[in-house]
Amino acid sequence: xxxxxxxxxxxxxxxxxxxxxxxxxxxxxxxxxxxxxxxxxxxxxxxxxxxxxxxxxxxxxxxxxxxxxxxxxxxxxxxxxxxxxxxxxxxxxxxxxxxxxxxxxxxxxxxxxxxxxxxxxxxxxxxxxxxxxxxxxxxxxxxxxxxxxxxxxxxxxxxxxxxxxxxxxxxxxxxxxxxxxxxxxxxxxxxxxxxxxxxxxxxxxxxxxxxxxxxxxxxxxxxxxxxxxxxxxxxxxxxx
Amino acid sequence: xxxxxxxxxxxxxxxxxxxxxxxxxxxxxxxxxxxxxxxxxxxxxxxxxxxxxxxxxxxxxxxxxxxxxxxxxxxxxxxxxxxxxxxxxxxxxxxxxxxxxxxxxxxxxxxxxxxxxxxxxxxxxxxxxxxxxxxxxxxxxxxxxxxxxxxxxxxxxxxxxxxxxxxxxxxxxxxxxxxxxxxxxxxxxxxxxxxxxxxxxxxxxxxxxxxxxxxxxxxxxxxxxxxxxxxxxxxxxxxxxxxxxxxxxxxxxxxxxxxxxxxxxxxxxxxxxxxxxxxxxxxxx
Lengths: 240, 285
Description:
The complex is a heterodimer of chains A (240) and B (285). Chain A has 240 residues and is mostly helical. Helices cover 75% and strands 0% of the residues of chain A. Chain A has helices at 21-53, 59-73, 77-91, 94-102, 106-133, 136-144, 149-164, 166-179, 191-202, 205-234. In chain A, helix 5 (106-133) packs across helix 7. Chain B has two domains: 49-121 and 199-283, Rossmann fold; 135-198. Chain B has ten helices and ten strands. In chain B, the strands form two sheets. In chain B, strands 6-7-8-3-9-10 form a six-stranded mixed β-sheet, sandwiched between helices. In chain B, strands 2-1-4-5 form a four-stranded antiparallel β-sheet, covered by helices on one side. The longest helix of chain B is centred in the last third of the chain and has 16 residues, at 212-227. Chain B: Belongs to the ABC transporter superfamily.
């Protein structure tokens, strides 16, 4: 293989003007983290609501929850990204559509919403599984104490369900983090996009993607350590 | 069991507010059984012609019975006979399609009935205890008092710990359910139900999930409760308990109340052949 290794490339100025290639990657990393966290907030809140709806006695609530999950998990993420970014503004009234297109950071907002809605469907399934894994008697006991449906969820079902699903939820969080890379297709300058442009400018493809890989692994390790600590702090004495 | 005696149920009780036990300074000595609308001897639970179906399958057929204030009624019968379903209908944990049930004068099947409020006045003890595993014993005893009855944390804790002492488990207040034995958990579950000042207690096979050596400690608590005058409806196979404290025994088979008799009549001369058969099987060893 005829390849000129140059690990010093990171400290050379990038063609963007200000800063080095390392700065470029780090700014990509920052956008990746920001997009992951913001979309996770949507995914967690919306996913919890949808997941709960699928376990409510009301048939209508179940139907809405099921429809949401099937819609958002059965369309590829890339297609959803395009739909939100290219198609949706065209379907809106012309003025609103063009205002959305001109938003500063439009790719970022779009990516956050798209990922949030996509991951919410997956979170919803975890929440539903967690609630359904609890003994049926727990719901009965809460109800028999005089709790309303909302109180039964708030004080009995959800605190237990979230503990059960913490490990798979960590996986969902990591998936969400890695899925931010799909947003490069709508122009979000996140870590993968930055690694790609570094490769295009400098032709140092191995260095660029080695750095990106290491950065992804590093943040994921941080997440895993945090999740382990969280799991430990939430563990209940006398269980398992 | 050598816990503090529980005061007599008919102790003078001048308050008519929603939560008389709190009005007293000495909450810990307050009455275990709050005043109800029903006078002694009047029906506390009235079950009238209740029928229930799961789809096309009928699980309850025209069940009718009364439980008077202060009465202890044991419901027995072979598994699948509908006894658990029947007592779950009493606090509307299970819906029923025909008939009516009244608890202390309040209709269970009525759109205008506030079911959470009704349920908060009916204590229920489950086969598998169903303590909330993520909460300490103290929190298990207090959460519904605070969130449903609106008691202050302090009052709820005082009442909870008092009842914990009565079931002989004061030392375990800070533990979690998973750290207790089955018998201890079930005693906590009884205390948790009592903390709400119920007018009626329902027991759904409270000793069926226990190791044999733990059955006694739970039954002791129930016997004491019965002697204190609590109105109780108990689904159980413990015929010793029935003989000791039951006023009446209801025998169910295939969703029907086959026999509804005083304890002496039931054990002495069961009328239906099905009950005779059941008794001979259950009492032969």
